[in-house]
Design brief:
Elements lengths: L5 H11 L2 H16 L2 E2 L7 H5 L7 E5 L24 H14 L10 H4 L3 E5 L4 E2 L11 H13 L6 E5 H5 L10 E5 L16 H11 L9
Parallel strand pairs: 2-3, 2-5, 5-6
Antiparallel strand pairs: 1-4
Length: 219
């Protein structure tokens, strides 16, 4: 079940040996055997497999995977090519276009961001079909908290985009030399309370450039 690039596996090996993770594995084995679970097992750790720790420029924290057929691909907010944008992604693209005065790629597949160093990390990495948050409090949060802690301690500066109170609860794990940008969640329920107009994408790129890194092509 752990299909993970070697560098991340070595960093997280102590977690994999803890009781909470062994319990999580048993739970997942039963879930995948008896229910439809998203994403596919090979894609659970996609966020980490796309970007090594030393290549991360930006972190976007999500909650749990999409729970409808075919949507989840192991990257927060992302859907495969040719899928309609979920509502939050519609608003993310809208803010990008307004902020950067560009036209976004018609695909909702955000692998193009991950390949540039954007860690698209959900804090719960699996979900049962049709049941949002069904794998909440099963152990994933302990692992992803450790991941965020490891990233938050990296010496080279990173931009953390924390949208909504859930993502913002992880701010204490992030050291002060990183840039933390906070706003309401891009969900239609909260986007008009300050996500629109937050200009996180231009602020992110300005910070990267000022620290000698190439900006993200957010199109």
């Amino acid at each position: 079940m752990i299909q993970l690039r070697r560098s991340w596996f070595d960093l997280l090996k102590p977690e994999f040996e803890k009781e909470y993770f062994k319990s999580l594995q048993s739970f997942l084995e039963n879930e995948y055997a008896n229910y439809t679970i998203y994403p596919e097992q090979k894609n659970i750790f996609n966020a980490l497999n796309f970007v090594a720790l030393d290549k991360i420029k930006v972190v976007i924290i999500g909650q749990d995977p999409y729970h409808e057929p075919g949507q989840a691909q192991g990257l927060s907010f992302s859907v495969p090519d040719n899928f309609p944008y979920p509502p939050s992604l519609v608003n993310i693209f809208k803010e990008i276009e307004n902020d950067l005065q560009i036209k976004c790629n018609p695909s909702g597949n955000l692998e193009r961001w991950a390949k540039q160093g954007v860690l698209l990390l959900n804090t719960v990495l699996t979900v049962r079909k049709g049941l949002a948050n069904s794998h909440k409090d099963k152990g994933w949060e302990a692992l992803t908290r450790k991941i965020i802690e490891i990233v938050g301690k990296r010496k080279e500066p990173i931009v953390f985009l924390l949208w909504g109170s859930y993502a913002q609860s992880y701010a204490p794990l992030i050291e002060k030399h990183h840039l933390i940008l906070k706003s309401p969640h891009p969900s239609p329920l909260s986007s008009y309370r300050g996500f629109f107009g937050c200009k996180h994408f231009s602020k992110c790129n300005n910070f990267l450039i000022s620290n000698g890194q190439s900006p993200i092509d957010w199109h």
